[in-house]
């Protein structure tokens, strides 16, 4: 299926004026060589007449023709330079535009895509092909039209001289065209096959050169092993590609030999015609040039077509990415999210399996968090705590059952509104390599950049203010070592900054997944001591292993293998003497024993 129109639309959207100018210019450039060709015929024939008549006075009109031919040639060169400039400026604009489209699409996609290797293959191919294929298609189309117009005229000229010349011209370029089509298909299929391996090589290269794993790679002496794996993949890919290229070059060589034989056959015939006086010398020169140019244009025309065929195949990789459908999106006529809650949050018989998996990690979960209540979620590793946080923040939707906020299904709220009014801190929070100020402001990008008060207030709530003040440039210190003058901080300090991001947002709902797990005992104690005050009036959940926090929650949910094992307040659960009571007692024993050993 041809999808060229979509590419053309892309290019014209990215650079409308430049594309229009390039189009007009290429049409003019297509016609100029014909004028040049005709002028040369006039010059040669005029010159022959002058030589035959022996009257040097007749020379001047020929001279003017030479000047005109020169001017046409100069115009051709100037237009070619202008075209080249327009082409590169169009290329850059289109490439930036396509990257912008790619980025917007990536952010719009559901998280589930990011958990599927197929997505990364699609993304990789779209990133490789997207930025330059649309521009290439447009220049391919203009080239094809340009060559087509030139061909019409030259073909007519050759037909006029002898129909056989036109036929030989076509036959001469057909083999190359066939080879090109054939190898486009082969390369397209190979490209699809090689993507996972190429991505794997990219991953190994990132491991070897990136910062995140640099320490461990040294400590475990993994450098040689990883670079060996990398070389193995690259050499496999290289051997496969060279195999295809070998066949391609061989076929191209044979096709070129066939076309050379055709050209010289035609030339031999023209020499014979001129020698026997059936052609003028001017005709012969014009034939020679016309045949040469005819070859160039026909080759250009067919190669353009073959190129378009190839571009059309490869651009489908870009469209595959753009056509990915998100599941988590606004319903028609979404509800407005309230500024403050009226009743609260309800999990109603919620079950969930991660996309692509049959196994339910949450099974028939039901509980209610009333307005102004903070619910602690407790459970062993893998019990499904973080999954509850992800469902409540609508990174995924339940497979069965529903989550309601103020008696409205979460799916019915406008997503951007809901996100604005929900402050979430996930366990694997982001570390932005920007200044501390920016890191905190990203929690609420509506905060004015100059509003230091809100930023500092958020940092104080998260216990980050003191350590930030000790940094060389305070709140203007760039975090991380990726950029100039960046400063690395500890994991616990990063966590404080991430928590400050949550407090920078004035949101009625909070979702905190292990918000202090990396902090030192003192910081964690201080945070949890004031947590009740900090979260006053807010509704939400907090996931924590610290019983000091859990104990003070309005409600506690104990999860076991994706199901609610028990729920209630600290006192009621202690009375029940179930799982919660046994964990609490064990943690207390550890603390007491720890204290006695000290
Ligand atoms: P917890 O927070 O209680 O330690 P999680 O909610 O993170 O547990 O995980 C619950 C289960 O879901 C685990 O068994 C884990 O293997 C699975 N799981 C977690 N994240 C994903 C994911 N992105 N894709 C598929 N399965 C996942």
Automatic annotation (TrEMBL):
Keywords carried by this UniProt record: ATP-binding, Cell membrane, Membrane, Nucleotide-binding, Transmembrane, Transmembrane helix, Transport
SUPFAM superfamilies: ABC transporter transmembrane region, P-loop containing nucleoside triphosphate hydrolases
Entries under InterPro entries matching the protein: AAA+_ATPase (IPR003593), ABC1_TM_dom (IPR011527), ABC1_TM_sf (IPR036640), ABC_transporter-like_ATP-bd (IPR003439), ABC_transporter-like_CS (IPR017871), P-loop_NTPase (IPR027417), Type_1_exporter (IPR039421)
Domain ABC transporter: 345-586
Membrane topology label: Multi-pass membrane protein
GO cellular component: plasma membrane
Stretches that traverse the bilayer: 20-40, 60-87, 141-161, 167-188, 254-272
Domain of life: Bacteria
Domain ABC transmembrane type-1 span(s) in chain numbering: 20-310
Protein's name in the database: ATP-binding cassette subfamily B protein
Organism in which the protein naturally occurs: Desulfobotulus alkaliphilus
């Amino acid at each position: 299926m041809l999808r060229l129109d979509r590419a053309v639309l892309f290019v014209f959207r990215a650079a409308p004026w430049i594309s229009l100018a390039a189009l007009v210019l290429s049409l003019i450039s297509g016609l100029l060589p014909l004028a040049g060709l005709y002028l040369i015929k006039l010059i040669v024939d005029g010159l022959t007449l002058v030589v035959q008549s022996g009257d040097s006075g007749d020379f001047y009109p020929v001279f003017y023709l030479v000047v005109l031919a020169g001017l046409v040639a100069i115009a051709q060169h100037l237009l070619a330079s202008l075209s080249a400039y327009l082409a590169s400026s169009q290329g850059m604009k289109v490439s930036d535009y396509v990257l912008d489209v790619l980025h917007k699409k990536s952010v719009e996609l559901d998280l589930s895509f990011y958990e599927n290797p197929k997505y990364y293959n699609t993304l990789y191919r779209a990133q490789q092909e997207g930025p330059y294929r649309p521009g290439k298609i447009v220049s391919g189309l203009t080239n094809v039209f340009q060559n087509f117009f030139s061909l019409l005229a030259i073909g007519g000229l050759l037909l006029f001289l002898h129909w056989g010349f036109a036929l030989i011209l076509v036959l001469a370029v057909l083999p190359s065209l066939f080879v090109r089509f054939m190898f486009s298909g082969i390369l397209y299929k190979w490209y699809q096959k090689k993507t996972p391996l190429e991505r794997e090589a990219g991953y190994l290269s990132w491991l070897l050169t990136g910062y995140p794993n640099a320490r461990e790679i040294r400590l475990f002496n993994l450098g040689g092993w990883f670079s060996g794996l990398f070389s193995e993949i690259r050499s496999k890919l290289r051997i496969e590609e060279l195999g295809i290229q070998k066949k391609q070059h061989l076929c191209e060589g044979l096709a070129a030999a066939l076309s050379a034989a055709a050209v010289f056959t035609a030339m031999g015939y023209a020499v014979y015609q001129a020698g026997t006086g059936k052609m003028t010398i001017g005709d012969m020169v014009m034939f020679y040039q016309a045949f040469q140019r005819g070859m160039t244009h026909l080759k250009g025309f067919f190669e353009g077509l073959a190129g378009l065929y190839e571009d059309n195949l490869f651009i489908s990789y870009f469209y595959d990415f753009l056509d990915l459908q998100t599941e988590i999106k606004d319903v028609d006529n979404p509800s407005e999210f309230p500024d403050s809650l009226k009743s609260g949050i309800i999990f109603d018989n919620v079950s969930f399996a991660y996309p692509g998996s049959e196994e339910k990690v949450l099974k028939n979960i039901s509980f209610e968090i009333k307005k102004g209540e903070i619910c602690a979620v407790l459970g062993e590793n893998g019990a499904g705590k973080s999954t509850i946080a992800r469902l409540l923040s609508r990174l995924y939707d339940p497979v069965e059952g529903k989550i309601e906020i103020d008696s409205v299904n979460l799916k019915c709220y406008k997503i951007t509104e809901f996100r604005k009014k929900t402050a979430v801190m996930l366990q694997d929070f982001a570390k932005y390599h920007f200044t501390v100020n920016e890191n905190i402001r990203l929690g609420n990008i509506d905060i004015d950049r100059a509003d230091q008060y809100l930023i500092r207030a958020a940092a104080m709530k998260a216990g980050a203010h003191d350590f930030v003040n000790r940094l060389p440039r305070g709140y203007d210190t760039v975090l991380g070592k990726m950029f100039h003058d960046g400063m690395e901080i500890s994991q616990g300090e990063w966590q404080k900054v991430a928590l400050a991001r949550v407090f920078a947002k004035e949101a009625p709902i909070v979702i905190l997944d292990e918000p202090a797990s990396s902090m030192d005992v003192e910081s964690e104690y201080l945070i949890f001591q004031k947590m009740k005050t900090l979260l006053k009036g807010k509704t939400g959940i907090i996931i924590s292993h610290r019983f000091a926090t859990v104990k003070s929650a309005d409600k506690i949910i104990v999860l076991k293998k994706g199901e609610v094992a028990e729920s209630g307040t600290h006192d009621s659960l202690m009375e029940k003497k179930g799982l919660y009571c046994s964990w609490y007692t064990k943690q207390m024993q550890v603390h007491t024993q720890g204290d006695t050993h000290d």
